[in-house]
Design goal:
The chain has 294 residues and is of the alpha/beta class. It is built from 11 helices and 12 strands. The strands form 2 sheets. A 6-stranded mixed beta sheet has the order 2-1-3-5-6-4, sandwiched between helices. It has a 6-stranded parallel beta sheet with strand order 9-8-7-10-11-12, with helices on both faces. Helix 5 (110-121) packs across helix 10 and helix 10 crosses helix 11 (276-292). The structure holds 2'-monophosphoadenosine-5'-diphosphate.
């Protein structure tokens, strides 16, 4: 049955607030989840210009919206308009999920918890591990928090611009009272202690349509990697992933992170637990969808 035929007087509304939002896969995640979990909820995109962020949050509350996801460029800007903050999201300083509470919304960061869940589902451990993180932009910053929060031994944060890596390392180390994030220049991977690493690719290099690009092309780098996790999921196999595999490592793309950030948000809004079989069904839908658009 068409989802629209099920909408009635009791349907709850959630959505994605960003600018732009037309490319999003989140409606597929949430509307399929609502159907499979038998919940009367719909999820729609809301393009919100930067100067409208506070009005949008107040309007969403007035319209009784159950929750919102937040994407670029509003992940920090929304914080000022929230009633409450989850402790971890407050430390990260970025929010991608708003949950309705009395008098407003509470901000969470399910990008981070979703990535952790995605890694666990691939049997990738963080605790006590030595990790290489490529990039120091918005996405990589959340990964640095995730790694430090879940007990990584060391995170070598490699970035083209060293001072950005230094800033992120300082922020994370001081917010979580750790000293595990070590900032480095991208080319300094040659000086890393001889070990096998989990590497998380958090730069925008290799993203569609620049599918032939990789931030590091030296095979000597990839030979140090046992597992490579790219946050990019379009293309489904990035150059970074191809190099990891060529060097004998295991490579994953970021589609499961997208999936689980959505599932974490859905569970917060509906106070439910999504069974793994349903998660995998949604994952297959997402895989199909990304292949169509490639
Ligand atoms: P996002 O929100 O996707 O993280 P971002 O905040 O603009 O986007 O960050 C992009 C990241 O990709 C940064 O780490 C950036 O490196 P710089 O801090 O040096 O700019 C990295 N990046 C983008 N293009 C790159 C390139 N051609 N070579 C190396 N790193 C690049």
């Amino acid at each position: 049955m068409d989802t629209r035929e099920k909408i009635n007087g009791k349907t709850r509304v959630c959505g994605l607030m960003g600018y732009p939002v037309a490319h999003t896969l989140s409606p597929i995640i949430h509307n399929t989840l609502a159907e499979k979990m038998n919940l009367n909820m719909v999820y729609v995109p809301f393009p919100v210009a930067p100067e409208q962020v506070n009005h949008a949050i107040a309007g969403a509350y007035a319209l009784d919206l159950l929750g919102l996801n937040v994407t670029v460029p509003h992940k920090s800007a929304v914080i000022a308009g929230l009633k409450e903050m989850d402790e971890l999201a407050a430390k990260i300083g970025a929010v991608n999920t708003l949950v309705r509470v009395p008098g407003g919304y509470k901000g969470y960061n399910t990008d981070m918890t979703g990535l952790y869940r995605a890694l666990l589902s691939e049997q990738i451990q963080i605790r006590e591990k030595q990790i290489i993180l490529l990039g120091a932009g918005g996405a990589a910053r959340a990964v640095a928090f995730m790694c430090a929060y879940y007990g990584a031994r060391k995170v070598y944060l490699l970035n083209r611009t060293l001072d950005k890596a230094q800033r992120v390392a300082e922020e994370v180390n001081s917010a979580l009272s750790v000293d595990c994030i070590v900032p480095m220049r991208m080319e300094d991977y040659k000086n890393l202690p001889e070990e096998k690493y989990l590497a998380i690719q958090g730069t925008s290099v290799g993203l569609y349509p620049n599918v032939e690009d990789a931030v590091i092309r030296d095979m000597a780098f990839y030979e140090r990697i046992h597992t490579g996790y790219d946050l990019i999921y379009k293309p489904a196999k990035t150059m970074f992933m191809k190099y990891v595999e060529q060097a004998g490592g295991i490579a994953c793309n970021g589609l499961k992170m997208l999936l689980y950030q959505g599932i974490d948000a859905f569970e917060l809004w509906n106070q439910c637990k999504v069974p793994e079989e349903i998660a995998m069904e949604i994952y297959q839908r997402l895989e199909k969808e990304t292949r169509i658009h490639e």
